[in-house]
Amino acid sequence: MSITLHEVYHTYQPNTPFEYHALKNISLEIKEGEFVGIIGHTGSGKSTLVQHFNGLLKATQGRVLIDGVDISGKEVKLKEIRQKVGLVFQYPEHQLFEETVAADIAFGPKNLGLSPDKIVKRVKKAMAMVKLDYERYKDSSPFVLSGGEKRRVAIAGVLAMEPKYLVLDEPTAGLDPKGRDEILAQIADLHREAGLTVVLVSHSMDDVARLASRLIVMHQGEVVYNNHPRQVFSENNRLKNIGLDIPTVTKLMIALKEKGWPVRTDILTIEEAKGEILKAVKGGKPHA
Amino acid sequence: MLKDITIGQYIPGNSAIHQLDPRTKIITLVLYMVGLFLVNNVTGYAVVTGFTLAVILLSGISLKIILKGLKPLLFIIVLTLGLHLFMTSGEIIWQWGFLKITSQGLRQGIFMALRLIFLVTITSLLTLTTTPIALTDGIEKVLKALFIPAAHELAMMMTIALRFIPTLIEETEKIMKAQMARGADFDTGGLLARAKSLIPLLVPLFLSSFRRADELAMAMEARCYRGGENRTRLKQLLMGTRDYFAFGITGLFLAITIVTRYMV
Ligand SMILES: Nc1ncnc2c1ncn2[C@@H]1O[C@H](COP(=O)(O)OP(=O)(O)O)[C@@H](O)[C@H]1O
Ligand SMILES: [Mg+2]
């Protein structure tokens, strides 16, 4: 069971002066249970790519398979695909429209044609998943909440569809550091505890590096890396060339190594860095 | 789908039409419209068709883009054609049950449809070949010449509206997609169901428009914008030979349309 793209191309506004080849020859697979990070500079085609995962955009050429089913087929019900692959857009709070938080989250399940008591159950569950207290928030207007709360409501709106794959397009954009950490921690929980397959789109290495078990790096509409974060970050110079930075901790370790400290440089988290540095310090000062 | 709307878009270019002074374009557009509404026979429409095609050719804008811009209006054009076709009384040339087409109806229907098509074509050609800034300057000058108060503000409002059409379309598509990702369905069901399905689209769209308006106002004020009073320009509008030539040709066109109406 997986999301599979086979030689996918996407062209915006074909046959006009504005023709733009946003995706070129993309082949990739996202297996059930994975946590995949998609990273790339603004305009590299990340959003275009993920909109192919649930059939919002159609490949100009190539095939998209969800759990083995080609979604361009005539008999395919796109609503079912969209239920299976939940997509949270960038700035999802801009799509809120209902008078109450609960009603807004219920929009997805309602569209799936569920019964009222099932809908309520799903709303409660979805709100618990993003750590919003049901009783406290259900009747408040989504428009009076803080930025981070609004975003959690919007994410709950997608979770209430009970997707198997959860795709989030830059879920931390525009949040303050605290809001960002909270959202990222919740996404990590959704993967670990709720067992969702997660695809996290971001342009920040710091966000993705710690969480993802695999990184897909996009550049000008093409996949340039598709590998474990440690492998990807070892290509420091090439990443710089395409305008991407490596995580701050990794940078620190490289700087220490250059100063002569005997440390590993394929470090992704602060915990790992701490261990390495302590080990190196115990070993004594380096001879530069 | 929504991307087909070309009104308000600008396509960079270097054609003779692109290089005309915006005032020239606006005034000749008005003259053209007068001509378009004067013609009432085959000769007249032939002249208008020829003139319009020549202008399109001269602008270097591909016919494909023009046709694409007409697509959203297809319904209105067909409706106009149909209404005239079946509702005009006269000499019957085709009949089926209560439906009948008269020769007058056929003629009138085709004329009206052509009029609509040309009207939209030439108007979108104005925005397709004129940058928004040039367009504001042009509108402002023309309004001032007509002694209309608050000419600058009016022109600014029009240009901002024009400028934001593509942005709003983009926004609409984005919100539509976001709601579709939650299982929304915008194009099936009866009239009532469809009207209802627009709520999840319209509410966020209004909110974002207000947000945008707020941000734009703030950004303009931050750069000390305070209306047209004492405002000077970096680029002065200057008419040249090309513009006088354009006036001459459009004047000639108008004269010919008058001739076809009253003398042919
Ligand atoms: N609807 C559209 N029409 C035309 N071009 C588009 C459209 N959406 C995106 N693009 C272009 O496609 C490229 C990739 O965009 P996107 O997928 O949004 O990149 P990212 O999410 O990585 O920033 C950009 O250059 C963008 O300008
Ligand atoms: Mg994007």
Structure description:
The complex is a heterodimer of chains A (288) and B (264). Chain A has 288 residues and is of the alpha/beta class. In chain A, 39% of the residues lie in helices and 22% in strands. Chain A has helices spanning 46-50, 78-84, 101-111, 116-129, 134-137, 147-159, 177-192, 205-211, 229-233, 236-241, 248-258, 270-282; strands spanning 2-12, 20-31, 35-40, 61-66, 69-70, 85-88, 165-169, 197-202, 214-219, 222-227. A 6-stranded mixed sheet of chain A has the order 6-7-8-3-9-10. A 4-stranded antiparallel sheet of chain A has the order 2-1-4-5, with no helix packed on it. In chain A, helix 7 (177-192) links the parallel strand 7 (165-169) and strand 8. In chain A, helix 3 packs across helix 4 (116-129). The relative contact order of chain A is 0.14. With 264 residues, chain B is mainly alpha-helical. Chain B folds into 2 domains: 1-130 and 235-264, no CATH class; 149-231, no CATH class. Chain B is 70% helix and 3% strand. Chain B is built from 11 helices and 2 strands; from the N terminus they run αααααββαααααα. Chain B has helices at 16-19, 22-38, 42-59, 63-70, 74-87, 103-129, 132-145, 151-180, 191-197, 199-222, 241-262; strands at 92-96, 99-102. In chain B, strand 1 and strand 2 form a beta hairpin. In chain B, helix 2 (22-38) runs antiparallel to helix 6, helix 2 packs across helix 7 and helix 4 packs across helix 6. The longest helix of chain B has 30 residues, at 151-180. In chain B, 25% of the residues are buried. The mean pLDDT of chain B is 88. The structure holds adenosine-5'-diphosphate and magnesium ion. Adenosine-5'-diphosphate binds at residues 12-13, 20, 22, 40, 42-48 of chain A.
